[in-house]
Design a protein that fits this description.
26% strand; Quinone Oxidoreductase, Chain A, domain 1; 6-stranded mixed beta sheet; Rossmann fold; binds zinc ion
């Protein structure tokens, strides 16, 4: 089968013919229809996230069709459409797994990182970690929901009841989260790279009440902010923008160093936290909610062999919405 393979970090992916994976107990063999390109893929390919399996097939926002099942993969039938997310497997026995925090599992496996992912014609996945995709979504449109949507939703939930919500970095996750936030009657303030009028226009079109440069303070204090951009400098900026008791949620897996800042910015019970991975419960909740909003994803379509170009456009901030490899 054809796949885009990472031999080692820091170099372009290679289009290769590799053996078809075979499914073991509990796993599904899935014919990939679409796989979205996530910023995390970029962090893996660039080597900012270390510890990837090598060689690796990246990609963890996969929509496809079950073509074969291993023993005990009872959750799905052959022919079913499935979504495969970042959380590929958890141990089920560590203290985190046993307390509803499987996103923090001590021995997790992640799709497109420590397991081969969806930049390929076929992939295998543990059936218990796959999701059913609501019928209203086409394959390409559904793919970004599997990470940008799910982890964006988890980030949004971490802001509690915040009404005035800042979002820093208006890419794949933000454009989905903004729709959910608006549905929940929150007011979204979108911050983009200075001068990125296209992203600011997208934010307004999705219901943001204000959009501007990340260097500009918001017109009124925020109750909470989510930072999706991998830019540590935004943490003190966002802390300055939230009110007393406000919360700043860092929604990405990697961020450049956070500069030191005066304690005054944290004073008055402001908090900073990160969001790590997802739980299966997040996925079930999000896929119930998404069609009701309804969350629509804006995608740019690429062929499998164009994965490097999609990653490059993501790196350069040239995408509006999410890039999706359509097979
Ligand atoms: Zn565990
Ligand atoms: Zn992701």
């Amino acid at each position: 089968m054809k796949a885009m393979v990472m031999d080692k970090p820091g170099q372009p992916l290679r289009l290769a013919d590799i053996p078809m994976p075979s499914c073991r107990a509990g796993q599904l063999l899935v014919k990939v229809h679409a796989c979205a390109v996530c910023r995390t893929d970029l962090h893996v390919v660039d080597g900012e996230l270390t510890g990837a399996k090598l060689p690796l097939v990246p990609g963890h926002e996969i929509v496809g069709e079950v073509v074969e099942k291993g023993e005990d993969a009872d959750e799905f039938e052959i022919g079913d459409r499935v979504g495969i997310p970042w959380l590929g497997w958890t141990c089920g026995t560590c203290q985190y797994c046993k307390s509803g925090q499987e996103n923090l599992c001590d021995r997790p496996k992640f799709t497109g990182y420590t397991l081969d992912g969806g930049y390929a014609e076929y992939t295998v996945a543990y059936a218990g970690f796959c999701f059913r995709i609501p019928k209203m979504y086409g394959d390409a449109e559904a793919a970004p929901l599997l990470c940008a949507g799910l982890i964006g939703y988890r980030s949004l939930r971490m802001t509690g009841e915040a009404q005035r919500l800042g979002i820093y970095g208006f890419g794949a996750a933000a454009h989905l989260v903004a729709q959910v936030a608006r549905y929940q009657a929150r007011r979204v303030f979108a911050f983009t790279r200075p001068g990125d009028r296209a992203a600011q226009g997208l934010a307004i079109s999705l219901g943001a009440v204000w959009a501007g440069d990340s260097t500009t303070p918001p017109p009124e204090p925020l109750d909470a902010a989510i930072i999706f951009a991998p830019v540590g400098d935004l943490v003190p900026i966002a802390l300055r923008a939230v009110r007393k008791g406000g919360r700043v949620v860092c929604g990405g897996i990697h961020m450049s160093d956070i500069p030191s800042f005066p304690y005054e910015l944290l004073w008055h019970e402001k908090t900073v936290c990160s969001v790590a991975n997802l739980t299966r419960q997040d996925g079930l909740e999000f896929f119930q909610l998404a069609p009701r909003v309804p969350v629509r994803s804006k995608v740019e379509i690429y062929q499998l062999a164009e994965a490097n170009r999609a990653l490059e456009n993501l790196r350069a901030g040239r995408l509006q919405g999410a890039a999706v490899l359509l097979l």
